Predict the 3D structure of the following.
Amino acid sequence: MFPRPSTSVRLAVLLALTGSAAIQVRVHAQSADALIDKLVEKGILNVNEANQLREESDKEFTKAYAAKSGMPDWVTSLKINGDFRGRVEHFSADDSLFTSRTRFRYRARVGITATMVEDFEVGIRLTSADVSNGLGGNPISANSTLQNGATRKYAFFDAAYAKWNPLHNGTWNASLTIGKMDNQFMVSPMVLDADYQPEGAIAQVAYSFNDQHTIRAISAFYALNELNQISLPGVVSPSHDPSLIGGQMLWEAKWSKKLESTFGVGVFALGSKDNLDNAATLPNVNDGNTRNGAGQLVNNYNPIVASGAVVYKLDSFPMYDGVFPVKLAGEYMNNPGAATQNVGYNAGITLGKSGEKGKWEISYRYQSLGADAWYEEVVDDDNGAFYEKALGGSGFANAVGGFGYRGGTNVKGHLVVLRYSITDSLTFVFTYYLNSLIQASPAGSPSAAGHFMADLSWKF
């Protein structure tokens, strides 16, 4: 048994932690906690002493950080991060009306996150993006296309939020976030595109029964538009602003060092969907939903989404360094607000996990997303097929002549993704979609299309 530390030993540990904090601001919390945990594990500190040391360390760190950075004393840390991605992208289709094309794009993001006393966090992130229909940046893509004679490109707010995390004691965790933020629902791009940055408020509460089982509840209100006095007879009324609301329950389990699982069920809904006309007031990025001649949605959208994933970790695998994860995942969606084409589902497998130098992953999934299973403008825009004729009321005909490759709903097909981390910060990604329309437009026309992307992505 180790002897109880003297006051001088505890003081030396505190000074070491504080000195490290003053020099290495970004890694203070992780390194300090790791050292304290190790001292508890070795029996040098008991739990009460460890908690006291953490509190004293945090106070001294705050003073040292304020002195070094010039920030006010209520800001305890400031983190800068971002990424740059270069992409070559190619589209092809079976229909003779389609001309195969290649484009070059990039995505650049940089953000600042400030952690403050009283469990507050404020974050701001800027991103590149093309303008969508003259209304601002594309809501489901942060890519900028190399075009228009090397003109200056746009930058937009990708995130601007405040977060309050008042409860985080190891058993309970609760947070509230407002503003423009990263999506926090655990769903696939069949429900919300990976680049979708919602605006509104989201709350999370999690309870950990033990180290193996956690229950998490997520609820959100997202604003989709603010119409003010805009009124278009028969199309848009300013009396109700459209919105998206949702809730999800998740069960996260670690059955052993090798086996983990996550299961969830969620409900989503559009509010004031009659004002989502998709032509006069909103970007028109995707297609698929059934609309009337005025562009209004015919059906209601309140889908129920069930999802599950199981991960098993092999001790080793050829040409892979370390524990090798194998993940099986699936998702099912049903929208009772539509009578037909109201079901979506996907299933897939992922082998390995990239993110560290020399590690790789390969994944495959099959997906079918009915035309009216969910709102077209928030799902994956890369997952598309060829329309020989635009759907009625979509606004697409006026935009690009009525035919072309379009993402959204009403699409089924395959996705293959390969990732290889060249370094810890640099990853190469190969992505290939091979899809067709569930309901071709016009009926019987060829709709199969391929979408290839090759990326190099640096993070910092």
User: Anything to note?
Assistant: The radius of gyration is 25 Å. The chain has two domains: 1-68, 77-459.
